[in-house]
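Lab channel / #folding
Pinned by the channel admin:
"Please post every new chain as: sequence first, then the structure tokens as a reply. Keep commentary short and put observations after the output so the thread stays searchable."

First post following the new format, from NK:
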Amino acid sequence: MTADIDFTAFFEATPSPYLVLDADLVIRYVNPAYRAVTGRSRDELLDRRFFDALPENPSAPDDAQHSPRASMVRVLDTGLSDTLALQRYDMSDPRRPDQFEERWWTEVHTPLPGPDGAVKWIVQRAEDVTAFVLSRRADGLTGEFNEREKGMAAELYMRARELSRLNQELRLAHARERKVALKDTP
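Reply from TO:
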């Protein structure tokens, strides 16, 4: 039995940043959370090749094996999901494309096959973990993460953000219930 789910509504409502690429790495869908975290509009992203819409910083350290480009190619080649636990991918300023801001991400690239079984779409979930990485530096922790630590740190950061969001929702729900209860009190 298939659930009657409006997936577009789901992606529009989720606080997690998602986009969908076709097999040519052209952005075909981007949700509001992704637009917010990248500071880009739909028009700046949709129907553009990923690396044209979100160019790579030419002066950032090169990590070709663990780059978003390599991850997307692996997904296309293998048909398997690929995760980048902690990845530096700087964001250019839309008004000054030659200016980049240091940004850190955890990304999951998930393939969706077409009728022939080949990868037709790649769904990217990208969480901005820049605040976590920069706070680690501010605490004087300058050593590099090993692969296990990268995964754990990114997962912990994402869970902490989700917990914070859920706590805020709980506080708002409690405030609404309290307001209703006080209104009903004689």
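NK: The mean pLDDT is 83.
TO: also worth noting, The radius of gyration is 19 Å.
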